[in-house]
Amino acid sequence: MYACNSGQGDASATAKDFKFIDASNMDTTVAPGEDFFRYANGQWLKNTEIPGDKTRWGSFDELRDRTNKDVHALLDETLKSNDKIGTPKGNIGAFYKSGMDTAAIEQAGITPIKPLLDEIDALSSNDQILSLLSRHYRQGIQSVFGGYIFADEKDVNNYIMQFSQNGLGLPTKDYYFKTDEKGKHIQTAYISYLATQLKNAGIADAEAKAQAVYNLEKTLAGASYSPVEMRDPEKMYNKYTPQQIAALTGIDWNRFIQELGISKGADSIIVATPNYYKELGKQLKATPLAVWKDYLKVHLISDMSPYLSSTFDNARFAFYGQTLSGQKFQKPRWERVAGVINGAIGDQLGKLYVDKHFQPEAKKRMVELVSNLQNAFHERITKLDWMSEATKNKAIAKLNTFIKKIGYPDEWKNYDGLTLTADNYVQNIMNASAFEFNRQVARLGTKVDKKEWLMSPNTVNAYYNPVFNEIVFPAAILQFPFFDFKADDAINYGGIGAVIGHEMTHGFDDQGCQYDADGYLRNWWTEEDAKLFKSKTGVVVDQFNGYTVVNGTAHVNGELTLGENIADLGGMTIAYDAFKKTKQGQGNELIDGFTPDQRFFLSWAQIWRTKATDQMALQLIETDPHSPGEWRCNGPLSMFEPFYKAFNIKEGDKMYIPADKRARVW
User: Is the distance from CB of 451 to CB of 410 less than 8 angstroms?
Assistant: First the structure.
């Protein structure tokens, strides 16, 4: 195995040369037991400025930046190639050229979406709105209907149409009902933004119309779920026939589905948020047509503004980037266009990235690391003192059936039939959206393809998909500071090992534990074990509720972040167990003055180092299921006894939690 085959002497020499733990980033004036995040990253935090085109900056962001620069070079190469449109390089080159042609984009102004705006203007009754929504939906403009086609969580081998709430311009429903000064400021700024975009489109009486649009959104927000409510898989699984959901919501779902061009596989649909659609059905009749026209226009303009002339693009950035997120200026044009291409034809771009930058040896070593983590998790489950044998056996069966995807897909998506040009950016985006819609619709009535990836290989991230019971690690995350061939085991296990363990633990967090080994949303726990699990996870909720951001002005939401916090704690624990089976983990050799265990925990702290603008930090507290970086680092550590031993943490230290108060889940 990778960990066992790495020679201790070689690893030590390499670590000294490459400084996988860079002491210049640490602040040793902070005691480890007071604030390990700052002990490990303090000088980095003091000396690092968030780039002006970013809202946060940390290890993930640094790696994304390096990866994006690699992608930038690939994009530039496609411009020099003579590959025809229809080939991967030809498609990417044409798409990229169209997005970088700012002269043509400026000259076009709002013209690319004028036909869609004219369609909205042509509405003569509320009854016609549904047909327009279906036409726009086919082109990727979802507006008030948010939907996709994916595996049925209670019939996992078959695809089903799934709809959830949509249609709000602010991050969550709660933004519409805030009464504090900051909340009111954002509400006022948002209404002003809507008015600006209406004015930019030459629409008169913009301020009054923007207010009416906001009022409609607020009504829809009142019927929407909060991010915490959206985390409940059973609550979100509501299966209806089109006739049943039509009776409940007052929306003619049969008509909507037919006008989407769907002729098979729509006998049943999932409507995750029926209360939202009930309110939507009411408002489609009760809200004046003129207000609906303004709503549809301004949302279309807002959604498409990043691809239109600078008048529209800058207005959107001024609100969403600057006011809402604290971003000083826009990302470079090439980076924004690259993101669009990645979303549209990500497999073609991803294959270019893999061919150029991914080392096959990385996949082999990752397979070994994943196996080591899986074995460690298996051992930990068998030793749990709170779980019955019946539930343990089912947990182990689930663990043993994990699908592991590493690096890149075995089969790349086929984009035959997608029409792209080098001179129409907006049309390329709409063609790609329509192509993806048709690809999804074609899957209805067929068996689920479990070989599909939900991220492109050049994405710096990883994920667990409960319906496939799979863990997925794209090529781009298999780089330092998460993974490096030259690093000692402590670095790799504290980095990518913890990420592997994190994704594995997602299969057993408060959401993942509701899915069985085959991906079905169904209970496999004894009643007593389920109660004990809830009790243990309640300790995690309470602990994280006590953490704050932005100088104590806002608290972490322990319920919203519960799944990720369980995964962080489990990931670190499992990675540590696996590390202790390596030669380095069983030894005591110092590298740069640190023991193997200390290097493991320093590597852990290093991957979570991050800074955010105050605006983004406050936004993430309400929207992001992940805790802020400092608490992703310190929270799990304060629950983990080996950390206490490694750094001699004692009662009285700020991070100290009495042993009987520490959360122990997995």
Answer: yes
2-55+359-407+480-661, what's its fold?
Collagenase (Catalytic Domain) (3.40.390)
Q: Report how far residue 626's alpha carbon sits from residue 608's, in angstroms, rounded to the nearest whole number.
A: 11
Give the pLDDT score at 26. Answer: 98
Q: What is the pLDDT of residue 15?
A: 36
Q: Which of 491, 430, 444, 664 is nearest to 569 (CA)?
A: 664
Residues present in the chain in total: 666
By the 8 A CB rule, do 391 and 58 touch? no
Q: Which stretches of 498-570 are assigned E, i.e. beta strand?
A: 548-549, 554-555
The answer to whether 468 and 403 are in contact (CB under 8 A) is yes
Distance from C-alpha of 413 to C-alpha of 345, rounded to nearest angstrom? 9
Strands 269-271 and 155-164: parallel
* Cα–Cα distance measured from residue 467 to residue 155, given in angstroms and rounded to the nearest whole number: 10
- Determine the Cα–Cα distance for residues 609 and 320; give it in Å rounded to an integer: 25
Domain with CATH 3.40.390.10 in the chain: 2-55+359-407+480-661
Q: What Cα–Cα distance (Å) separates residue 511 from each residue in 301, 313, 537, 559?
A: 36, 38, 12, 12
Spans of the chain, pLDDT less than 70:
1-18
In the chain, what percentage of residues exceed pLDDT 70?
A: 97
Residues 6+ apart with CB under 8 A from 654: 33, 34, 35
What was the pLDDT predicted at 19? Answer: 80
